[in-house]
Amino acid sequence: MQTVRISGQFDRKYAAPRDRRPPRGIYSRARTAETNLLLGADLHKDASFIDKAYNDSAGFGPRSTLNMLHHLNRRYDGNFVMDNFRYRSKYDPRLKRNEVRIESLAAQTVTLASLDFTMALAEGELIDAEIMWKFEPDELCSLLDRAGFSLVNRWIELLYRYGLFLFAADDIHRRLISNRR
Question: How many structural domains compose the chain?
Answer without folding.
Answer: 2
